[in-house]
Every structure is written in structure tokens, then in C-alpha cells.
Amino acid sequence: MKKPLEGVRIIDLCVVWAGPFATMQMADLGAEVIKPENPFVFQPMTRGRVARPSQAMLDAGNSWAGGMPGGVPGEKPWNYNPTFVSLYRNKRSFTVDIRRPEGMEVLRKLVAVSDVVYENNATGTMESLGITYDWLREANPRIIFVRVPAYGSTGPYYNARALGVHLEAVMGHSLLRGYDDTDPSTNTAIYSGDYLAGAQGAFAVMSALWLRERTGRGQLIEIGQAENAAAMFTQAVMDYSLNGRIQEAIGNRDVHGRFPCGVYPALSPGTAATMEDRWVTIHVETDAQWHALVRVMGSPEWATDARFDTNEGRQAHAREIDRNLAAYTVEHDDYELMHRLQAAGIACAPILEASRIFDDPQLRERGFPRVQTVEGAGPRTYAGPMWNMTGTPVEFRQPPVTFGEHNDYVYREVLGLPEDEIEALRAGGHIATEYDASVP
Is the Cβ–Cβ distance between 353 and 64 less than 8 Å? Predict the structure, then answer.
């Protein structure tokens, strides 16, 4: 059955997360996503921190960023870095050094038979390589070029390098998402802006393809990640614009001022140090829901206090309620609490540590956990697609792609190069299945 983006070819010149997340969504929808990779240049935090990490580096690092199967580097660690394998299913990889003229000519020929070029490098990177919108249009007048810089291509911050954590800080989100009794230095790093930029970028590509079908014209699209990330705290922007109020951190409380609302400890087999602590979210929105919660708890004396009958009273005594509520929840299993409270009409759900997500009954029923086999890593369970569609099912057609896995396909089938040119490129080091020995 034909997939929504089947027949669309996208060149993935992306790094780290925001760009690859966008192209992964489009690959899941059937687009052919081809990633050119340079055997002589390693992109940090894309296929790993370094191409050939030492055992000491793995032992000292975070598993989510640089963990390896079995905790050892393996023969080709760039093929199973966790960040990379999370984002490069359903894609193709071929190798070429686009810093050299013959490599740029290969890229030009690929652009000529593609629909989209997508990149999220630091501002100036593409220009330094000679990849501009004008250059792309000369190769293909219908090309759609999507750029996703951190702070845009103009303005006082345009040349600043940034990851998601930097975007959070510059935009002010780090000030808003903390607890009301601590300062931002206690916050852990999050990268929500990357996901938002990726989702918006994928939507922008599909909108541009829709327009091109009607006009025949490609276009240049720029998405400033910081500007796009402002959607995370629209309420604070509006409150300042309309009322002159500067919002501050409220922890896990309700932005509309309904109480209680928070994250509470549940019965735990271990501690945070062993990642075995358990937590649940509880959100009471009405007085009726509060009284329902009191009944579920067995109507303890503290909860029947008339001070708590109204939202205003609960707000005034929020910390007292939180302490008592936590003393109750910590004695109960998180899923048990979820079922009991939801049955009483109260919003409640467990906060799942990442490894527990794959055992969640609802996610399993929807086919979210998917098993894939990566070269050198064996079968592993990965997060699946974000949607299911009955008419066009989303499938894992290609496991996370290995370095240069589709060299033959791209050079012979897509570009149709003669054998003598292919051999010349191979002799020049363009075509490879591992990084050059000069790359650490």
C-alpha cells in the first residue's frame, strides 16, 4: 500500500537531534531519506561523541549519550551509538567527502534527483561548503531547502552555537520550568526545543510539497529553533504582553491555578540512585474531584478539613496538602493509584523511567515498542512511530542505518555513475563503510 510520502526523496545533511528527528518522521511516512556522510569528518553527538571511544570514555559518560551494547566500544561503535540509532531508522546512508570538488559534484547530482534538502547545522556551515539556496536551485529549480538554525540566520544571536539546553536558557524556559523553592541551577537539562523544531520542520516540508504540486516552485524555508520553542511557554509571553506580569517557576503545579496538582512519590523498589524510584502525577480540577480523592484515600482526618473544600482554600494550604498527599501515595503502587484515581474521575498517571515505557500496557497494545537488529548490537527494543494509521501502516522498513550501507544503491541506482567513476571515488576515499583511520 502506498505510503503518504512515498516517492519523495530527502537529502539529510542534519546533525545531533532537531534535524534528524524531522527527517525520521518523514522517513516513517515513506519518504526516501538519504544521508551523505563524510569518512574523514566525524559529526560530534550525531554518531557519537567520537568515532572510536575508549573504554574509559564509555565508563565515565552517560549511557543515553554514549552507551554501547555490553558496555564496550565494539568494532564499529558509530553504528550503534544510542542517539544515532534512535533517529536513523528507515533511512539510507552513503559516504562522500563534500569538501572536495568531486564530492560536491556527487552532491549536486543527488540534489538534481531529489525533492528536499534538510539541514540544521550551525549558521555558516553550509555556506562555507558552498551549499546555498542559489547553488541548489541551479542543480534543481524545484528543490525545497529547509534550514533550522538555533537563532535564525540574521540578528544578534545568529552566529551562536547551541544545543537544546542552550536554547532553553536563552529563551527563558529554564527560569519557568523549575521549582518555586529552588533556583535554575538545580534544573536538569532537557531538549524539548529539538522535538518541537523537528515536528515543525516535518510539517513545513509537507506544506512545501503540497504547494509545489500546485505551483511547480520549490522554496527556501528557515525555522529559527529559539523562536519556534517559544510555543512551550506561550502563556508566559501572553501574560507579559497583555498584563505586564512576569511569570516565575511554579514546579509541577497547574498553570491555571487549580489545586492540588503535582508529582508525588509512589511505592518504590529502590531509590533514584538505582533508577528505581516511582512517582505519579495527580491533578484535581474541581471541588467535586477533590472530594472524590478524599473518598479514595479513605477520608483521613486531615483531608476532611473544611479549609480544603474550595480551590481557594486548597491553594492557600497547598504545601500542607502536598505533604499529606505524598505520605499517602508513597504507600501505594503507581499503577494501582492510577487505576483507582482514574476510576474516580481524577487525572492520574505514573511517571515512567525510560526502561519501563516499553512495558506500559497501552503503548504495547498500540505497537509502540519495536524490536530491531543493528549490526554489531543485536536485537534491541526501540521507541516506535508516534502514530498509527489503518490505511497506511507505519513500519520499520530499515533498521538504524550503518555507515555507508547504501553506497552501491546511491552511486549505481540513484546517480547511475559508470564503474570507472565509482572506482575513482573509492580510490579517493569517498566510498567507505567506516571512518578513516585519521578520525579519532
Answer: no
